[in-house]
Amino acid sequence: MERDQAAFGAFLRARRDRMTPAQAGITALPGPRRVPGLRREEMAMLASMSTDHYSRLEQGRQAAVSESVLKALTRALRLDETEAAHLRDLAAPSGRKRRPAMAAQRADPGLLRVATVLDHVPVLLLGQRGEVLARNALLQAVLGDPMPPGSSFTDYLFREPLARERIVNWADFAASSVAAMRMELGRHPDDQRLVADVEWLRRTDPDVARWWDDHTVRDYASVRKQITHPQAGLLDFNIEVITAPHVPDQYLVIYTVEPDSAAARALPFLASWVTASTP
User: Fold this and answer.
1) N-term to C-term CA, the chain
2) Domain residue spans in the chain?
3) Is-contact 190 97, C-beta < 8 A?
């Protein structure tokens, strides 16, 4: 079984196990149930295909998956847009794989210009595998890590104890990051560095292993983030992510604040402190 076929089948199983007959809007087939999720027969019925055909898909024995079958599976499993895109990535045949990730990444000039005019809030530009392509001084002041270009935000989040100290809702933020890593690996299955990063995290962090085995996928998206700062106290941010169509693997991460919030009042102080302490 090829790796992509195995991943495709595992994703189908995870989504099928998560959906009950009641959620699917059908009457459960008679007989004892070992799991609360859909049976293969029920899933096949929802997708308008034979049980044998669906079993081959889930077991990785179906080399090619047509667009009509992908649409039927998406509809039957009620996948959202991100999950449907991930399913299509996993179904891509070996002859249509995406190119491997480049070893050296360069920040997109347009996204850099946007980051420059946002110097009043923390900003971070990420590339593939969570590589830091650029960041402003306020981000360093808020997170407490220098995070120079070429370093890894993934390493900071999972390997740096300071991240768990400063990010109050670390578990929520980290789980979303793992889901985004799964989405990225579906797009770039030949990225051996990303494969190695994921395997290392799964071996060394039980939380990552549990989140990964859940098969949840997310693109880099908006999420709330709470930071406890040693001088400024508790800061609430809404993390907004901007991408550009011509550089789909670069993400401009912007830490936005509510007007008159504690974070909004603290940022000018942190900015002046950064300016005063920067030679």
Assistant:
1) 57
2) 3-96, 109-277
3) yes
